[in-house]
Specification:
Blueprint lengths: L3 E7 L3 H12 L6 E8 L5 H8 L4 E5 L4 H12 L4 E5 L3 E3 L3 H8 L5 E10 L10 E4 L5 E6 L12 E5 H4 L12 H11 L3 E12 L10 H19 L2 H21 L8 H13 L1 H12 L6 H5 L12 H17 L4 H4 L4
Parallel strand pairs: 1-2, 1-4, 2-3, 6-10
Antiparallel strand pairs: 4-9, 5-10, 6-9, 7-8
Helix pairs in contact: 6-7, 7-9, 7-10, 8-9
C-alpha cells in the first residue's frame, strides 16, 4: 500500500500535463502513486498519458464530472492513506510532496495546503495567509501566523482519507468545493494547516477559460452560498443575510460591465438555491452527523472584511462590516483574535 495517492483531474488539459508530470517525477518523496482522472477529454489527453507516462494510473470517464466528481472517482480507487489533490496546470518544486506529508502529520490536522504561487497574484499577498469572508470570498493577508489558514485551496492540498474519505459533494461540480472540504474538517473539530515548505507554481484558470461566463457565474455564486446554507445554523444565517443580499446587489451591478459577471448566471444561482430547499435540508441532516464543534469555533477563523484593497473607501466599508459583526455577535478573527 502506498503512503500517498496524488490525484489529478484533467479535462482537455493535455498542454499542461508535461510540465506537471515531469515535475512530479522529480519529487524527493518517492512513496506515492499518481492517478489521473480524465473527465471525457477530447484533446487526446488519454492517449498521450498512455504513450508517454505509462507509470500514471489513468481513470478514463466518458463525461465531465467536474472537479468534485472527478476527484471523488480518484479517491475511490486510491490506495494511499494520504490523498493529495493537484491541479494539472501546476509546476512543482522538488520538495513539494515532502512538505505536504510533513505538514499533515499531527493527529489533529486533517488537511494541509502548499504555498501556491499563482500567476498574476501580487507578491505582497503571499506575506500572510488569507481567510474566508461572509460573502464566501477569499480575503488576503489575515493571519499573522504563517501556518494558519481557514481552508486549503484546491490547486494543491493533502488530506487524511480515514478522516474525510470521499471528500466532495458532487453537486458542486466546480468552484468552492475546497471551502466545502475545509468546513467539513473544521466542523469535525480538526485543524487545517498551511506550509511554505511545499511550493508550486499555479498557472490558474486552465480548465475553465473557454467556458461560458453564465456557467462560471452560476457555479461560483451558488456554491459560495451553498457552503453557508449547509453548515451554519438558521440563527447565524439570519445574521449573515445582509452579506448575502449585498453580494447579490454587487454581482448584479457587476453584470452590467463586460467580462465581469453574468446577470443570468447570478439570478439563476439564487433561484436554484430557493428551489432547492428540500435538497439543502437533506444535505444538512447528513452533514450534521459529522459535526463535533460549535459553529462559533469555525466563525472565529473567518474574516468580517469585505474588500482586500487598502483604499480609504475599502477601509471604511470593512470597519462598518466589523461594527455590524460586533453588534450581532458574529465573532470573526478581527473580534475574537487570532486562533492558536
Amino acid at each position: 500500500m502506498r503512503k500517498v495517492s496524488v490525484i489529478i483531474v484533467n479535462y482537455n488539459g493535455k498542454h499542461f500535463l508535461k510540465d506537471c508530470l515531469d515535475s512530479l517525477m522529480e519529487q524527493s518523496f518517492k512513496d506515492f502513486e499518481t492517478i489521473i482522472v480524465d473527465n471525457g477529454s477530447t484533446d487526446g489527453s488519454g492517449e498521450y498519458i498512455k504513450e508517454i507516462y505509462s507509470w500514471v494510473r489513468l481513470v478514463e470517464i466518458q463525461e465531465n464530472l467536474g472537479f468534485a466528481g472527478g476527484n471523488n472517482e480518484g479517491v475511490r480507487v486510491a490506495e494511499g492513506e494520504l490523498i493529495v489533490l493537484l491541479n494539472n496546470d501546476t509546476i512543482l518544486e522538488q520538495d513539494w510532496l515532502m512538505g505536504l506529508v510533513n505538514a499533515v502529520e499531527p493527529n489533529d490536522v486533517a488537511i494541509a495546503s502548499s504555498l501556491i504561487l499563482t500567476d498574476g497574484i501580487p507578491a505582497k499577498y503571499y506575506e500572510k495567509n488569507g481567510s474566508l469572508n461572509l460573502f464566501g470570498h477569499n480575503i488576503m493577508s489575515i493571519f499573522n501566523k504563517s501556518e494558519n489558514i481557514f481552508y486549503c485551496g484546491g490547486a494543491s492540498l493533502i488530506f487524511k482519507k480515514k478522516i474525510l474519505d470521499i471528500p466532495f459533494d458532487e453537486d458542486y461540480f466546480a468552484y468552492s468545493e475546497d471551502v466545502y472540504l475545509g468546513m467539513r474538517a473544521r466542523f469535525m473539530g480538526y485543524r487545517i494547516k498551511h506550509t511554505n515548505e511545499s511550493k508550486l507554481r499555479h498557472i490558474g484558470g486552465g480548465t475553465f477559460r473557454k467556458e461560458k461566463n453564465e456557467r462560471l457565474t452560476y457555479y461560483q455564486e451558488r456554491n459560495r452560498l451553498l457552503n453557508f446554507f449547509l453548515f451554519f445554523s438558521i440563527k447565524s444565517l439570519i445574521k449573515m443575510s445582509p452579506y448575502f443580499l449585498l453580494n447579490l446587489l454587487i454581482k448584479l451591478a457587476g453584470s452590467l460591465f463586460p467580462n465581469k459577471y453574468s446577470f443570468t448566471g447570478v439570478v439563476k444561482s439564487y433561484k436554484d438555491l430557493l428551489d432547492s430547499r428540500v435538497m439543502i435540508k437533506n444535505k444538512r441532516s447528513k452533514l450534521k452527523k459529522e459535526i463535533k464543534v460549535h459553529e462559533e469555533e469555525v466563525i472565529r477563523w473567518m474574516t468580517c472584511k469585505i474588500f482586500n484593497e487598502e483604499t480609504r473607501h475599502a477601509r471604511v466599508i470593512n470597519k462598518i462590516s466589523e461594527f455590524y459583526c460586533r453588534i450581532v455577535n458574529l465573532r470573526t478573527i478581527e473580534i475574537e483574535g487570532e486562533c492558536r
